[in-house]
Amino acid sequence: MNNVNLVGRTTKDPELRFTASGKAVTSFRLAVNRTFSKSDEADFFNIVCWQKTAENVANFVSKGHQVGVSGRLQSRTYENKEGQRVYVVEVIANEVEFLEKKEGKGNGNQTSQKPSEGSKQSDTKKNNNADLDIGDVDLDEFNAIDDDEDIPF
After folding, report:
1. Closest Cα partner for 28 from 7, 43, 44?
2. Does residue 138 sit in helix, strand or coil?
3. Which of 9-13, 42-46, 109-113, 148-152 has the lowest mean pLDDT?
4. Are 66 and 100 a contacting pair, CB within 8 Å?
5. Neighbour count for residue 97 (Cβ, 10 Å)
6. Would you say domain 4-98 falls under CATH 3.40.50.150?
7. pTM recorded for the entire structure
8. Can you spell out the DSSP letters for 80-98?
């Protein structure tokens, strides 16, 4: 079993490159806070993404953005310019979840507004109807169950 799940912030803008065969590859470093540290300590991980994931990360993530990464560990070696063997351990990302919107580039207004107290419930129902592809179903006909006694199982 080789699974890695991390949530952290990027330390710089991801770098998009292409292999000789034309495959997109993006690499970046992820700073992950240590949860049980007495001081503010973090671990830094090298992340590598391939193909469409690489392109999306390069387009929508920049320095300081919080992302979730799911992938696997991979080690490799290479010889540097001085002829020394270098060992590298990287996280090969299968999935990258953007936990913040990237500012700029036409994403629109990113501030959220609270509806007035009187219209909160109706605005929520309207938003739910707009987000779901439900056809002719009217969600206003459904009522929330207040306690567990009414659940039929």
Report:
1. 44
2. coil
3. 109-113
4. yes
5. 10
6. no
7. 0.63
8. -TTS-EEEEEEEEEEEEEE
